[in-house]
Design brief:
The termini are close together. The strands form four sheets. The chain has a six-stranded mixed beta sheet, with no helix packed on it. The protein has a six-stranded mixed beta sheet with strand order 5-6-7-8-12-9, covered by helices on one side. The protein is globular and about 45 Å long. Helix content is 17%, strand content 38%. It has one domain: Endonuclease/exonuclease/phosphatase (Deoxyribonuclease I, Chain A, 4-Layer Sandwich), CATH 3.60.10. With 234 residues, the chain is of the alpha+beta class.
């Protein structure tokens, strides 16, 4: 059995009010793997870290990353990309989970207005998002050609079931998961908001799900709910 957390830290710094509680909640389930979006590299749980690049087409402060993976075991064969649309939003590597070498792919899929009114300002709504899914496809299919287990996760900027999503974009993502033979481990909504950070994979089955609330008293720690899943090896 392994535990995996997926959450968005909204670039919270270590000196921010939210930092201690974000770390406490993300470490509460003692995850073997954390898939964290919009992070600062000095505000991550303990472990071995790999991350996407520092340039994703928007101004970024030092140490900010769109996607990072934290594991107990070391990483090998780490890959990220400098070319748009994957630049800064994609990282993959191999690590040992429950004694098995596992391919882990983390993403922060662009939101619907990416590079529309800010950034490069050369896209229509959902265009960068769909371009990212097209560029992601060969990476997931290459991973699926191996016999190794796979964990795929991050900020998908989708809900399952869809809620105000572009229908074509949502179907593209569903088709990609199916084509790569990846089962979705996260879905649903809560009274505190939607779930946009997700986990999928192969070689595992879902044993249990725990929502991580973004709410702390009368304030939000971040703009996303998080999730932890317990997975059994199959």
């Amino acid at each position: 059995m392994i535990s995996v957390v997926a959450w968005n830290f909204e670039f919270a710094g270590r000196r921010s009010r939210a930092a201690p509680e974000l770390l406490r909640r993300s470490e509460f389930y003692q995850p073997d793997l954390s898939v964290l979006s919009e992070v600062k590299l000095d505000m991550l749980p303990a472990g071995n870290v790999i991350a996407g690049g520092e340039n994703w087409g928007y101004p970024a402060k030092s140490g900010q990353r769109k996607i990072a993976l934290v594991a107990e075991a070391p990483w090998e064969d780490v890959r990220a990309f400098d070319e748009r649309p994957l630049a800064g939003r994609y990282v993959e590597g191999r690590t040992c989970l429950s004694g098995r070498e596992t391919i882990v792919i983390g993403v922060c899929i662009p939101w619907s207005f990416c590079h529309v009114t800010h950034g490069f300002r050369d896209r229509s709504r959902w265009q960068e998002h769909k371009d990212f899914l097209r560029a992601l496809r060969p990476r997931l299919l290459k991973a699926s050609e191996t016999e190794k287990p796979i964990i795929f996760g991050g900020d998908f900027n989708h809900t399952f079931p869809p809620d105000s999503m572009d229908a074509e974009a949502h179907q593209m993502l569903l088709d990609l998961l199916s084509e790569a033979d990846l089962a979705l481990f996260s879905s649903g909504q809560s009274k505190n908001g939607r779930l946009l950070n997700h986990l999928a994979g192969r070689g595992f089955e879902l044993a249990d799900t725990y929502w991580i609330s973004k709410v702390d008293g009368d304030r939000d720690l971040t703009d996303h709910n998080g999730i932890c899943v317990d997975l059994r090896e199959i």
